Amino acid sequence: MDNGAPRFSSVAAGAALELRGVTRLFGALAALTDVTITVRPGERRAVLGSNGAGKTTLFNCVTGDFPPSSGTIRFFGEDITHFPPYERIRRGLRRTYQISALFPGLSVRDNVYLACRGVSRGRFSVLRPGTNDALMHASEALIQAVHLTAVREQRVAELAHGQQRQLEIALALAGAPRFILFDEPAAGLSPTERRELIEILTSLPAHIGYIIIEHDMDVALRVVESVTMMHNGRVFKEGLPHEIEADPEVQELYLGAGHA
Q: Is the pLDDT assigned to residue 218 strictly greater than 60?
């Protein structure tokens, strides 16, 4: 699907996202210390850890909201350590946030259309979209992908919390992303909404890799193939989902002593 977004050549081998020795200081406080992580193209990974482990700061460094104090970040082989956020977006990096960042007064369709328009070459055009507008067709496809077709004309303010989370995923998918950072997408969801989220994430195109931060391990471990555990701003342990789930140190650190 060509919606006018910038195109960059795909990488057949190597890393989609590579962090080397990433440290982030806030004054004397080290929120991240010497973090090294490599994620392959198309890989789905969970970053887990208790509150204060450095997970969101890690995302902020990757997206450029808070650049690292030291270390390097490469995206599909390109050093983006000092790139502003919009340049990272142009290269196919997307992110969702813990707190919804939507236009509550607009419809679902208009929210998705604006997201597609914002990463397209014609984003500054003053012409109104027609019925055959490519971005409008792209918007409809994304709405269907996140199971919101039935509420496409509703104002975002009228949506259930889970539907707003689904909409955020649609916005992150705008413009043919190559990699997405999901920041606690299951927060506040009911069991039914969690099942819907799992279905959406597992149905994403195989070439789109992602990292998910999630406190709900039942969700996180079902939608990824690898896990990085963080503790006190450092990488504590890495492994496959079943290895992390069964690890006694992880259980004690993340779930509390006495977890069976």
A: yes
